[in-house]
Design goal:
Elements: E1 2-10, E2 17-24, E3 32-35, E4 43-46, E5 51-54, E6 56-61, H1 81-93, H2 98-114, E7 117-122, H3 133-144, E8 147-149, E9 153-154, H4 159-174, E10 181-185, H5 191-203, E11 208-212, H6 216-226, H7 230-236, E12 246-249, H8 255-263, E13 267-270, H9 272-278, E14 292-294, H10 303-317, H11 322-338, E15 349-352, H12 365-371, E16 378-383, E17 386-390, E18 393-394, H13 399-416
Parallel strand pairs: 1-4, 1-5, 6-7, 7-8, 9-10, 10-11, 11-12, 12-13, 13-14
Antiparallel strand pairs: 1-2, 2-3, 5-15, 15-16, 16-17, 17-18
Helix pairs in contact: 2-3, 2-13, 7-8, 10-11, 11-12
This protein binds zinc ion.
């Protein structure tokens, strides 16, 4: 049992602040309670002057890109999104072997933990190291102490054998653990694969996790080849039937598709920083309803930065308040709760060493989230009631040793690019 001494505890739902000692129960169903005193000999984390609140969820992530930080540039600069995939990401993911997949998960997982995230919804791709890849990632994240909802990116882009391996790996993984059925995006997924992915998701009572209309070319491909738009296609195939289904991006959905999405129980993830980095368009929440979450799309693991980016883009478009942006950050907790996924209990906490020069109140907390707080304030992190980051150092894993390993794997990967 872990005790937090003298916390300024922020209720993530109401933003009410209460000072006192907290008792944090361990385990997937552990809760957090105020106590009047801390028993002698108990395990205590002193949090005087710190804000303590619920940790973050990354609703769309790509751990497989963790070793890309600082990698050599492609031989020629991509001129559009299709070239970006071909020259950069598909070149990288094809070079990943099992050791590198583990290095990615460890490097990305540690970064996420140090940014205050305790739950990752990941979309994985390593076409030449598919078998067992989801277990490798799961075990790395388990070692770090992070909860997860994984999937493997199914696609026809690397031919029949790779597609079949992906389906088999997904089926094998979902037979033992919670996860989703991943699809790359409409333009690399055949009708046959789409149908089989939906059937596989139904077999395991789960949803689809797919990129949708990230670039205009994805929509144009669907219209050209099938005469319909992506969400018409996905909806007709049953891919939007599950409330567990996650669509990433949705930048180029038209009015009709927005209505299809709104009528479905599916969720959409905005990845603002990534969209700007790729220059693929602007996210517009108009007509999409309330099932919107935020992700990083593998660009980093910093949900505070992602929220700020979504907020500033929303400001530029007009009408977004700090509270709107804060609520979008927190929407992922609802997605996980209503769908019965485990690992996002109240005993997941981030301890923020944040001492602004102005008062912090329930009324202005959202503004502090948007204008004041950053990853530099994340001091300690508790996942499922267990300390995983203590005063900016990892607790359960040897981060120096891991850094040596991931750095070696990155060099190996970069040589192959
Ligand atoms: Zn993505």
């Amino acid at each position: 049992m872990l005790y937090i001494q003298d916390a300024s505890f922020v209720d993530w739902r109401t933003l009410r602040i209460r000072r006192g000692h907290l008792k944090v129960a361990p385990g997937p169903k552990g809760d957090v309670r105020f106590v009047s005193r801390i028993p002698q000999g108990a395990s205590v984390l002193d949090c005087s002057g710190r804000l303590v609140t619920k940790s973050f969820v990354i609703a769309h992530h790509h751990l497989y890109s963790a070793l890309a930080l600082g990698m050599p540039l492609p031989p020629r600069a991509p001129r559009n999104f299709a070239q970006m995939l071909k020259l950069v990401w598909w070149n990288l993911d094809r070079k990943l072997d099992a050791e590198m997949v583990r290095a990615c998960a460890l490097a990305g997982g540690i970064e996420a933990a140090k940014c205050g995230a305790t739950f990752l919804i990941d979309h994985h791709s390593s076409p030449n190291a598919t078998r067992g890849s989801l277990d490798i990632i799961a075990s790395a994240l388990d070692d770090i102490g992070l909860s997860h909802l994984l999937c493997l990116e199914l696609s026809d882009r690397d031919g029949e054998r790779r597609r079949e391996e992906g389906l088999a790996e997904t089926n094998r993984y979902l037979s033992g653990r919670q996860g989703l059925v991943g699809l790359h995006a409409s333009f690399t997924v055949s009708d046959g694969l789409l149908k089989r992915a939906v059937a596989l998701a139904e077999t395991h009572a789960t949803g689809i996790h797919a990129h949708v209309a990230e670039a205009l070319s994805d929509e144009n491909d669907c219209i050209r080849r099938r005469g319909i738009r992506i969400l018409e296609r996905f909806s007709a195939a049953g891919a939007l039937r599950s409330p567990k289904t996650i669509l990433a991006h949705g930048l180029h959905l038209d009015k009709k598709e927005r209505a299809i999405f709104r009528r479905s129980p599916a969720w959409l993830v905005q990845n603002q920083e990534s969209n700007q980095n790729n220059g693929v368009g602007d996210f517009d929440s108009a007509g999409l309803g309330g099932r919107l979450m935020l992700g990083t799309d593998g660009l980093n693991a910093d949900m505070l930065a992602s929220t700020r980016a979504a907020y500033l883009a929303g400001r530029a478009r007009g009408g977004m308040s700090p509270l709107d942006a804060y609520r979008r950050l927190r929407k992922a907790h609802e997605y996980l709760a209503v769908n019965g996924f485990t690992g996002d209990g109240e005993n997941n906490l981030v301890i923020l060493d944040y001492a602004p020069p102005t008062p912090v109140t329930p009324a202005n907390l959202a503004a502090h989230f948007l204008y004041g707080l950053g990853r530099c304030h994340v001091e300690s992190v508790i996942s499922a009631g267990r300390l995983i980051v203590r005063r900016r150092r990892m607790v359960g894993v040897d981060e120096d040793k891991i850094r040596e390993f991931t750095s070696k794997q990155a060099e190996k990967l970069w040589r192959r690019l």
